[in-house]
Amino acid sequence: MRFIVTLFFGITTIYGRQIRNHPLHHPNIILIYLDDLGYGDVSAYQAGKLNTPNIDKLANNGIRFTDGYAASATCTPSRYALLTGRYPWRNENARILNGTAAMLIDTGQMTLPKMLQNVGYKTGIVGKWHLGLGNGLINWNLPIYPGPNEVGFDYSFIMAATQDRVPTVYIENGYVVNLDTNDPIEINFKGNDYGLPSGLKNPELLSMMWHHGHNASIVNGVPRIGFQKGGKSAMWSDIDMADKFLDEAKKYISSVKEEPFFLFYTLQQPHVPRTPHPRFEGSSGMGPRGDVIVEADWCIGEMYKYLEDEGLIDNTIIIISSDNGPVLNDGYYDEAVEKLGEHDPFGGLRGGKYSLFEAGTRVPFITYWKGKIKPQVSNELVTQIDFLESFSSLIGSCLLYTSDAADDMQCVDLGGRRII
To answer: Which of 24, 120, 367, 400 has a CA positioned 20 to 30 A from the CA of residue 240?
Structure first.
């Protein structure tokens, strides 16, 4: 409960007894989740050399937690814990999943979006999913389920796994976007290249050279993990991905803004392959990894401007965090090490992504609610696994404890009194 206690401290500093005695009008909630962003990658933390002015704006006018943690040092387990409130080690399949892995979250489990649905929220996800789809035997040319829509999201516009894995297509509400049924998609991770070029066989076709693990199908000049055949009309453009997710996030908000909404906006940056739009190339002076962080910061600034223009900012909680800590060379030669300079994405911490040490899970952790959260720096220990319980408390939801509910779930009202 420490996350919500600290959040309430910021709120009650302004509104005092009114907040404690009366349920809040349901605020909109936007959870911005970056991919492999390090503790030192946000300039507000004063631990690196990158400049992130838009994230800093939220950090400096909200609560910047200095001791905030993801549940794991890799992506899939962290996302599972965030959405379900359960430790990922409780699910033996909660590991880095390939693009054809079965759905990890049971459709009967309580989840953050499902809880919010139950109290009248519209719920959507735009961006990276990486929690599995279907039953593991997916026909990408037919409706794909179960997926995000079966575990609490009214709307979903996602990539199935990661930018470096096939399938390299967007999926909207269970359907591959722009798929030509005369060019069906086939996917495998078992070494069958379908007789097509690959990163291993055809380095002359690459615009980005692989270092390890990324030598299978070539899409947009980038070698991937896994093999894909077909689906040419549905292939995404890597350099336009950030803009695409931002546009889809705005469209979703526009469609639901008359009601309370939850948006899980899951950016792909700075995960590999690091493919900034040309207008961001060279913007950081640190190569593609730095450039995509600048790009992500711009996206967050554009989202903030959109909320202001739509008159939504005063009633919207924004949270920014990352699924795990940073990694430099993660499978491609992209000069992440060579151009790092004096920047320290690890923020002086030991380890990084994949590591048991602190930089693997200690991540940027920022909450913002204009006019309601008092700007401050908090040294409280907080974790993403508490989001489900925390937001349940914030909006006055009462979730009964079951074997599928969050770990140590208790039902409390806004005054902090235990009900069950």
So the answer is: 367
Q: Tokens representing 366?
A: 């920022």
| Rounded-to-integer distance, Cα 223 and Cα 198, Å | 7
Q: In this structure, are residues 223 and 214 in contact, taking their beta carbons and an 8 Å threshold?
A: yes
- Asked if residue 103 lies in contact with residue 132, where contact means CB atoms within 8 angstroms, the answer is yes
Number of Cα atoms under 13 Å in the Cβ half of residue 199: 28
pLDDT tens for residues 318-338?
999 999 999 999 999 999 999
**Residue linked to tokens 């575990």:** 151
Report the length, in residues, of the chain.
Answer: 420
Q: How confident is the model at residue 15 (pLDDT cuts 50, 70, 90)?
A: very low
Secondary structure class of 64 (helix, strand, coil) = strand
Secondary structure class of 129 (helix, strand, coil): coil
In angstroms, rounded to a whole number, what is the distance separating the alpha carbons of residues 255 and 175?
Answer: 19
Q: Which two tokens stand for residue 90?
A: 């409780």
Q: Residue 12 above 70 pLDDT? A: no
Token couple for 156: 């979903």
Burial (CB < 10 A; 0-12, 13-18, 19+), residue 284, is buried
Hey, what amino acid is at 45? Y
Q: How far is CA 145 from the centre of its chain?
A: 21
Choice between 332 and 420, residue whose per-residue pLDDT is larger: 332
Distances (CA, A) of 411 to 2, 254, 393, 416: 15, 32, 7, 9
Burial class (CB in 10 A: 0-12, 13-18, 19+), 319: buried
Is the Cα dihedral 18, 22, 26, 29 positive or negative?
positive
Rounded Cα–Cα distance for residues 118 and 107 (Å): 15
The pLDDT of residue 17 is above 80: no
List pLDDT tens digits, range 224-240.
999 999 999 999 999 99
* Contact criterion met (CB below 8 Å) for 138 and 170: no
Q: Are 27 and 260 in contact (CB under 8 A)?
A: yes
- HEC sequence for 357-382: CHHHCECCEEEECCCCCCCEEEEEEE
Give the Cβ contact number of residue 190 at 10 Å.
Answer: 7
Model confidence pLDDT, tens digit, residues 216-275: 999 999 999 999 999 999 999 999 999 999 999 999 999 999 999 999 999 999 999 999
Output phi, psi for 252, to 5 deg. Answer: -65, -50
pTM, whole model, 2 decimals?
0.93
Instruction: Please check the confidence at residue 107 and state whether its pLDDT lies above 80.
Output: yes
- β-pair type (261-266, 122-128): parallel
